[in-house]
User: Fold this.
Amino acid sequence: MAAYLIVDTRLDDPGEYEQYKLQAKPIIERFGGEYLARGGAMTVRESDLWSPTRLVLVRFADAQTANRCLDSAEYQAILPISRRSARRTALIVEGI
Assistant:
């Protein structure tokens, strides 16, 4: 069953975050991740529980693959760049 990585990001240092994005994309793609949305325009229709800032949506073959990607040594090596330059909420949800 497909799984989706959903990340909401509030950028604190957009310049440094660009370095994370450049390095994360090939890692995500090596694990079969397909970017479906990456910080594009959005319309928030309801926000009682959550007010998203900048969304990224990535489809993986399954949740195990998504977790392997995020747990990989390659991804873990660049994660500090993201943590220095942004605040994020990230989750993996199974779907169709």
